[in-house]
Amino acid sequence: MSIIKLLTSSVGRKILMAITGLLLSFFMAFHLFGNLFLFVGEAAFNGYVEKLHKLGFLIRIAEFFLVLFVFSHAYSGILLWIKNRKAKKVVSSYSKENTPGAAKYAAFSGSIVFIFLATHWSTFWYKFNFDLRGMSYYYVVTESQVGFGSPLVSIFYIIAIALLGYHLKHGITSAGQTLGIIGTKYEKTYNNIAAIFWFWIPLGFISIPVWFGFLVRII
Amino acid sequence: MIDFNLFSKAPDGDLYTKWEDYKSSLKKLSPEEANKYKVIVIGTGLAGASASATLAEKGFNVHAFSFHESPRRAHSIAAQGGINAAKNYKGDGDSVMRLFYDTIKGGDFRSREDNVYRLAEISKNIIDQCVAQGVPFAREYGGLLDNRSFGGVQVSRTFYARGQTGQQLLLGAYSALSRQMENKKVRFYSRHDMLDVVLVNGKAKGIVTRDLISGEISTHSADVVILATGGYSNVYYLSTNAMASNVTANWRAHRRGALFANPSFTQIHPTCIPVKNDFQSKLTLMSESLRNDGRVWVPKKKSDQRKATDIPEDERDYYLERIYPAFGNLVPRDVASRRAKEVCDEGRGVGPTGYAVYLDFQKAIEEKGEDFIREKYGNLFDMYQNITDENPYQTPMKIYPAVHYTMGGLWVDYNLMTTINGLFSIGESNFSDHGANRLGASALMQGLADGYFVVPHTAMDFLAKEKPLEKDITDMPEFVEAKKKTEEEISKLMKVDGSLAVDEVHRELGKIVWDKIGMARNEKGLKNALEEIPKIKQKFWSQISIPGDDKDVNQELEKALRIKDFIELAELMAHDALDRKESCGAHFREEYQTEENEAKRNDKDYKYVAAWEYSEEKSPQLFKEELQYKNVKLKTRSYK
Amino acid sequence: MNINLKIWRQKSDHQDGGLRSYRLENIDPNISFLEMLDILNIKLVKEKKDPVAFDHDCREGICGSCGFMINGRPHGPQKATTVCQLHMRAFNNEDNILLEPFRAESFPVIKDLSVDRKAFDRIISSGGYVAVDTGDALEANSIPIAKEDADEAFLSSACIGCGACVAACKNSSAMLFTAAKVSHLALLPQGEKEGKERVVNMVATMDEEGFGACTNTGACSAECPKEIGQTNIARLNREFIKSKI
User: Fold this and answer.
1) Model confidence over B504-539: pLDDT tens digits?
2) What pTM, to 2 d.p., does this model score?
3) Which terminal Cβ of chain C has fewer Cβ within 10 Å, N or C?
4) Do C59 and B243 touch (CB under 8 A)?
5) ipTM
6) SS3 state at C24
7) What residues make up the domain containing C189?
C-alpha cells in the first residue's frame, strides 16, 4: 500500500493532524517568546521584529510552511468531520453522551481559531509587513485600532486565545493518543508538557491584551 | 425398520497407537481435489468453527450456518473455567493415560474407551494450536503456562484464561474461521436456522434453512453435512444454556434416521446462582473452579434462619469434606449436585426458597488474602454480586445445582458419523466421550478435539470415497419435498390461534422435565412424565399464539419451532431414563442406590449406549451398543 | 415497581420507525432488565400484538448479542454492565425509560432494537487472526510470554463485540473494537509475523465499512461493558506508525 493511501485512511489523517498540530504548537511557543518582548519595552520589541525581518527569505519559507500546516490540519479535520457525520445516522433522541466538552467541541473551537487566524493575518501580519506607515511595531500592537488600542480587538483576541487553549486541551492530549505516546513510559512527561501548551502558553498570550489593552490604561 | 448395527468402527489394535495408525490409513485429498467438494457445517461454536476452519485449510469449500449473527456469539463463549490437557507441565504425574482414566471413571464407565483415549491424546495438540493462535492463557511469573485443578481429579491439568476460557478459545477458533472467510473458502450464513436434513439415496446431501431476517425457506446441497449444534439443556426451560440454544437441528436429523444416544444423560452443575422468582429466564453458572478455594456447607440445624456469618464454625456442616475426605469440595459434578439436593431436601437448605447451599471463601481469604482471590475469581465475584446484590467477599455465596450440559446426543461411530451416511456430529451435539457424566473443563477439550483434529480427517476419508456433486442439486425431488414439509409445518404453527406465549408452554414443560427427569428419577415420576408431556404437546398445538408474519423477523416463531422439538425430546428422555434401571453418573434412579446413597451401577445389564430410533406413530425403538472395556477395570466410582 | 417505557419500533431498515409507549406495573426490582422485556413481550403476544424484537442470548454478559440504548446510554446506566446483567433495581419506581437501537450507519436496524453488526466480522476477517493452520503449531511452552504481557493481551481480548463503543461514539467510530483486537495480537509474540499488514488492513476495512474516525474523546471506553481501555487505541496508532517506518 502506498504512503498516500496510508495517509488518507482515517488513522493516517489523524496522524497528519497530530503532527501538523504539534508543529503549530511549537510555532506558538516561539511566537509567544517574541511577543513577551513587549513587556521588556518598545526598543526591545521593535529590535526583535527587525531582526526577524532581516532573515527575509527564510522567514517567507517558514511562513509558507505554517500556512501549509494550518490548511492541511484544517483540511484533514474537515474531511474527518464529514466522514463522522455520515457514520452517525441518527443521534439518539435522549442524548447523554459520555464525551468530554473539549473533545466534543474541537471542530467548533478549531473553526473559531481559524477565523481568528484570518483576522490576525489581515491585521497584525499585514500591517507589520506592508502597511506600517512609519508606526513602530510596538505602537501597532499596543496602541493602534487594529491592535489593543481597540477594546473590541482585545476582547476578541482574549476569547479566541482562550478557545485556542480549549482546542489544544483536546488537541494535544489527542495527538499523544494518535501518535501512540499514551500508555508508554513517556505518557506522564508528555502530559506535563501538554499542559504548558494548552494552559500556560495561551495564558501568556492573553496576558498581553489584558495588560496593554486594559490594565495599563486603568493603572 | 432398519436393524442398526451399532458398531463403533474403532479399529482393532493397541489403544495407545490406534488413532495415529488409523489416521495414517485414512484416505487423503490434495487441496486441488478437495476444492471440488462442498461441506455444510451447522453451528459455529467451538466445534463448528474449528471444523469449518480446518476443512477450509485443507481445501474444501465450507458453507457454515448459524442462527447467531456472528460465530463469536455461540454459547461456547460462556464457558468459564478451563480446558483440560495432559501436558503434565506441573510434573504432578499427569499423563494421557491418566486423563483417559479420569474421563472414563468420571463418566461412570458409560463411554467408549477408544474415543476417550483419542480425546486424551489430542488434548495436548489443542493447547499448542490455541497458543499459536494467540489465545492468552494464564501464565506463571516465569512466562510458562499456568494450570489449575478441577473437580473429579487430583492433578492440575486445566488451562484457563481467568473465568473466560471459553470466550478466548472461541475467539481463537473464530479468528481461524474469519481468516478462511477472507480467503473465500468459507461462506458464512448468519441468522439461519437449520430445519431439516435432506437425504438422497440414504445419504445426507443437504439441508433446509430459514433465514431469520427475511423468513425465507431455502435448500442447500453439499457432499457432506456436519452438525455442531450443541446441547439441549434448554429442554428444562431454566438452564445455564443461552436462551436460543436448542435441539432442533439434531432432532430433525433424528427424525430423518439418526439415532439419538443416551438422551437422559444430562449434567446438573453444582455451582449455579439459585432461582429467585417465577420470572427467571435463565440460570447463571459460577465456574466450578470456585470449588478450589470455596468450601461448601449448610447449617447443621434444620431451617436455621441466622445469617451465614452468625453461624459458628461448629454448627456448620461441611458435608462434602465430611463425606468425601479424599476429594472434599472437588468431587465430580453429579456427586456434588446430588448431595446439595439431599441436604436441601432434608430441610437444611438456605436462602429464601430453602434450595441453596453456601459456598464460603472465608478461609481462603484469610489464608491467601483477598487480592489473591480477586485475581483468580474477580470477574465471577463481580458477576455474582451484580446478580444477587450480595458481596461474596464478605458473605458466602449461595449456590444450587442447575442443568448445564448434555452428555447425550446423536449416536456417532469412531469417525463421528451418525447412523445417517454422510451426516457427522461433533462437539456437545454428539454423545461420544463423556459417558454418564462429564468432568469439568472437558467440554471445551472435546469440542476442539472433534473440530480441529478428528472430523477433518474422518470427513476427508469419507469424501475421498465419494464422487463430488457436479452441481447444485436442490432441484431434486428430495429437496423440494423437504422444503415443502418445512413450509407446511410453519404455516400450521402460524395458524394456531390461541392465547399462550410459547415461553409459557416452555416453562411448563421445563418444570415437568426438571421434577421428573432431573437430578433424581424414579419409575413413578418417569411414567407420570410420559403422561404429562403429551398433554403439553396438545396444549402447544392448540393454544399458542404467534403474532406477526412468518416472512419477517419473528422471534416467537423461532421459539415455537424449537419448543416443538423440545417437547418431543422430553418424551424420549423419559423413555431413556425409564429403560435404564440402574444409577450411573448423572443418571440417578432413586430405586438403585447404595446404603450410602451413592449411585449403584449395574454393569451386567446396562453396560451399553442406549441409541433410540424415532418413530412418528409408535414408541421409540431402542438399539444397544455394548461397551467394551479392555484397558480399564470396571470399578465402583469412589471419591472417598 | 411501575415503569413507563418508550420503545423504538421499526419494522425494518427500509421503513421508518418511531417511539411507542408502554406501561408495566408491579415489576419485581430483582428481575433483570431483559426479564422485564420478556414480561412485556408475553403481554403483547397475549394481546396479539407484535412483540419487541431485541438481540440477546447468553444473558451472562459474554456473548455480546444484547445491547441497545437505555436513556441515551449503551447498555444503560450501570458501569461495566451489559443490558442482560442490568437489573431493575438500577431504576426507581415510576421511572421513564427510553429504549432505542444502537445508532450508526454501519449498524443497519434489523427490527426494533435489533441491529446488524456484521461489519465487525468483516473487520476481523481482514486481519484479526494469526495465520497458523491446524496442526502446524509449536509446542505450547516453547515461547515463554511474560505474565504481564499475557494478562494485558487477555484484557484486550476480553472484548465481546457488542458494539456499545460505536453507539457511544459521537462519530460512530469502531476504533476501540479494532484496536482491542490489534492490541491483543500485538502484545503476543505469536501475532508479530503479520503485525504490519494486520493493522493497515483492519483500519482500511473499518473505513470502508463506513465507521467514523476516532477523535479520541474516550466515550467508547467509558461505556464499554468490558472496560476496554484507551491505551488499546494508542497501541493501534503505534502499530500503524510502526508499519510505515
Assistant:
1) 999 999 999 999 999 999 999 999 999 999 999 999
2) 0.95
3) C
4) yes
5) 0.98
6) strand
7) 117-244
